[in-house]
Design goal:
The chain has 14 helices and two strands. It has 273 residues and is mainly α. The protein folds into two domains: 130 residues, Bacterial muramidase (Helicase, Ruva Protein, domain 3, Orthogonal Bundle); 116 residues, Lysozyme (Orthogonal Bundle).
């Protein structure tokens, strides 16, 4: 699953997709179980085609299935209900910090380049990388299109996920995402787990090879994560603990308070603060 288009292309497409999604979701109805999913997909194909998604993206919808595991995961995110101490324990904070310090030392030049370009230090990036995929070791096994399509159909958060479905179809349509791509349960992609629309908006070429590959290139994944944080208001040189200017950018990464606090705490420990 290689993201071969350049970041300046992604940025323009993302803006167009936001408008596309608003039109598409107005007609398609949602559902709370699998019974209406095949019909919904057929309707959505027509709407997506009318809004400019090409034949490759439309055909990819022929093979999506209702992702029951995704719905179960969406309904049972128990770890976000833990206390901060319990959450840190479950997520293996001590291991992430220890490994994060080693990663920082081993990839010092990369993190220096990223901080110079985006203003984001290594610590929070490594905390995110470690929590999301164990530093790239666990990228997920759920079919990305099926996950995103299921959540776009589901009545819980259709307005949130339909722009991501359209973005995924655009990525497939342009050959930058395989229809068979696999990732996390909610359709997140790559080493730091970007949803499809965020790939379009914030994907960055961190290794300078002219491509954006969130799966195989840690440099691309980490640069994209820094670009995401900068896009959510990160200020170079400002603090990122609760109450400090950059904490709001961390809040943009994940809505769960314990997750936000964990990033800040582990990031500071990795950065030696």
């Amino acid at each position: 699953m290689a993201f071969v288009a350049k970041s300046r292309f992604f940025a323009g497409v993302a803006t167009a997709l936001l408008g596309l999604a608003g039109t598409a979701h107005a007609a398609a109805q949602c559902g709370n179980n699998s019974s209406g999913f095949p019909e919904w997909i057929q309707q959505y194909k027509q709407e997506a085609q009318a809004q400019g998604i090409g034949s490759r993206g439309i055909r990819a919808l022929d093979n999506v299935t209702y992702a029951s595991k995704t719905i179960n995961a969406d309904r049972n995110m128990k770890s976000f209900k833990y206390s901060l101490d319990k959450f840190m324990q479950v997520r293996g904070a001590q291991t992430i910090v220890s490994r994060g310090k080693k990663q920082k030392a081993q990839n010092a030049a990369l993190f220096d380049r990223i901080e110079q370009r985006y203003g984001v230090p290594a610590g929070p990036l490594l905390a995110i990388w470690g929590m999301e995929t164990g530093f790239g070791a666990y990228l997920g096994s759920q079919n990305t299109l099926s996950a995103v399509a299921t959540l776009a159909y589901d009545c819980r958060r259709p307005d949130y996920f339909r722009p991501h479905l359209n973005a995924a179809l655009q990525l497939v349509d342009n050959g930058t995402l395989s229809p068979d791509a696999k990732g996390a349960m909610h359709g997140e992609i790559g080493q730091t787990q970007f949803l499809p629309l965020n790939v379009l908006k914030y994907g960055a070429d961190g290794d300078g090879n002219g491509r954006i590959d969130m799966v195989r290139s840690k440099a691309d994944a980490l640069a994209s994560t820094a670009n995401f944080l900068r896009g959510h208001g990160w200020q170079k040189g400002a603090g990122y603990q609760p109450g400090q200017p950059n904490y709001s950018a961390i809040q943009g990464w994940n809505a769960a308070s314990v997750y936000q606090q964990a990033i800040a705490i582990m990031g500071a420990q990795i950065d030696g603060q």
